[in-house]
Amino acid sequence: MLEHIELFFKSIFIDNMVFAVFLGMCSYLAVSKKVATAVGLGAAVIFVLAVTVPLNWLLDKYLLQDGALAWLGPEYAEYNLSFLSFILFIATIATMVQLVEIVVEKFSPSLYNSLGIFLPLIAVNCAILGGSLFMQAREIETLGLALNYGVSSGIGWFLAILAIAAIREKIRYSNVPAPLRGLGITFIITGLMGIGFQSFGGMLTGGGDEAPVVDENTTVQELEEEKKIQEELDEKEVSYNDAINK
Amino acid sequence: MGLLTKKDASLILDPLADNNPITIQVLGICSALAITAELEASIVMAIAVIFVLGVGNVVISLMRNIIPSKIRIIVQLIVVATLVIVVDQVLKAYAYQLSKTLGAFVGLIITNCIIMGRFEAFALGNGPWKSFLDGIGNALGYGVILIIVGFFRELLGSGTLLGFPVLGDPIAKTGLYAFGYENNGFMIIPPAALIVVGIIIWVQRSKNPALVEEN
Question: N or C, which end of chain A has less CB nearby within 10 Å?
Answer without folding.
Answer: N
